[in-house]
User: Fold this.
Amino acid sequence: MEARPDYSVLVSHISSLHARGPRASLGIVALLTKHGYLVNTFVFNLLLRGLCQSGGIEMAVDIFRHVSHRAIIPDAITYNTLIGGLCKGNNLESAVGFFAEMTRRGCSPTIVSYTSLISGLCKSGRSEEAGALLEQMKEKGLEADVIIYSAFINGLCRDGRVDEALSQYAAMCRNGITPNVVTFSFLVDGFCRAQKWEEAMEMLKTMEKQGIQPDCFIYTNLVDKLCRGGKVEHARRMVTLIEEKGQTPHIATYNALINGLCSNGSLSVASEIMKKLTELGVADVITYNTMIRGLCGEQKVDEAWELFYKLARGQLGAEPNMITYGTMINGLCKKGQVDQALDVHRMMVERGKHGDLVIYNTLVDGLMKTCNVEKAMRLKEEMVSKGLIPDAFTHNIIIHGLCSANRLEAAESYFGEIKGSGLKPTLFQYNALISALCRANQLEKALRWFQEMKSGGCEPDVISYNSLIAGAGRAGEVKIAREVFEEMLQRGLPMDKITYSVLIEGCVKNERVGEAKALLEMMEDAGFPPDAGVYDSLIRGLCANGEMRTAVDLLRRMTDKGIEADAGLASTILYCLAAHGKDTELLESVPKLLRGKK
Assistant:
């Protein structure tokens, strides 16, 4: 006959087996039932706690609903377990529901019930409700402890109500509750979020007066927030102050400072701190990644490469990670050094680190921008062969690259590939193709793609219409340009600076100078100041039309607005001089217009 397992042993296993998943705990309960043991509220609570800790909160709720109405009567621990699990899973509505049900069933909420719910509400930006719950708790005679006050202070600070948070801090002190390092960290963070730097510093001093030493999180958060708030020098002084106290700032604090210095363009200072940390043997891969990113961001890619090379050779006591490789590849691609970026990628693969989608997209983009179309397409195929699925950004890069290289048939063919993968082409992709077709004087094709775009449910934007208007104007199709323009207005899309510019250019090309002049006035009235290119287009039309006086007036208006002639407008003025050299007004305007031009 099979020996009956010991009850206490089985019960102890319910808690210890939760890490293996819900089935293990449920299996123990089944064994208890099988051998005739009573599954009481205590065992039931252990099961629910195990399920909640292993991420099975939904199953815990289902079991509660099934069991609680039968032999087992839930107690405060039962409800607290479920409320806590639901709050951790961000299912606050259900947690609030269980809290209300608990009260209805005559089971009084405990300090644990209130702590879980107040904390959950605060983390979800519902500090108003948390405050009401705190007041309710006090009315029921329950005293709030440091955990509840800290959670509520955190919620108020996250919601931007830092003054109220300070009031709660004062209230807890009056009630004889001593704030801890967590309370102070929330207050310091709240003041930093509100950019109340002096108050944040004062809170640090108060903390130290009470014998509580700020931890790594507080210092790092403060330094980071100071840097993000443009107070980099304050952040430096803060780190210096820590050092002067004989304390060694955590590497995370130094990394936050280096990041702030790099973002502020203070690379030399950041580099000195990095060198000091390297000499001390405390710099980590985040230190070097931050420095490499900062150098690349300031176009100092060669210096970034030197640092990366030392790191990769094992000379700095840390190993490059995926972020290191990705940052270096991105920096090299942006500078056009794509072959070197590909070398970094090969090094990464040889070391057992396989590129992710972001790295492949960066490399494909770099190759496209340096006109290595075939290489880019081969790399894209390599990416697919490694199980990486191209995303919308990948397709954007390829469509834009093919269009920029004037490989329009290939771009059109690639649209079919996008559709074949089950994706819908994006607005960016349609715009890139339509614009390229218009530039290549393939207006008919551009219009076909425009119609397909609309019929496929992709709404055109002002860029789509501007490209077609420009393309129609370039092709002398004034009627089509007007129809496209009218459709754009009917759809409620506002004209922008480019719309006016392409319309003026189209009118000039089709000898409708009067309309072009009227559009210029409309453009200025709409608050879009014309640039030298717009003036160039219109002045060219006026000169060709023999309207020299109007052209000179326009030139004067342009100089009065402080707009200098660019190379195109300078060429137009010289053309006008050749055609109408005897016009004294034009001759007198030339020196002022061409200032700064050689």
About this structure: The chain is about 75% helix and 0% strand. Residues 267-280 form the longest helix (14 residues).
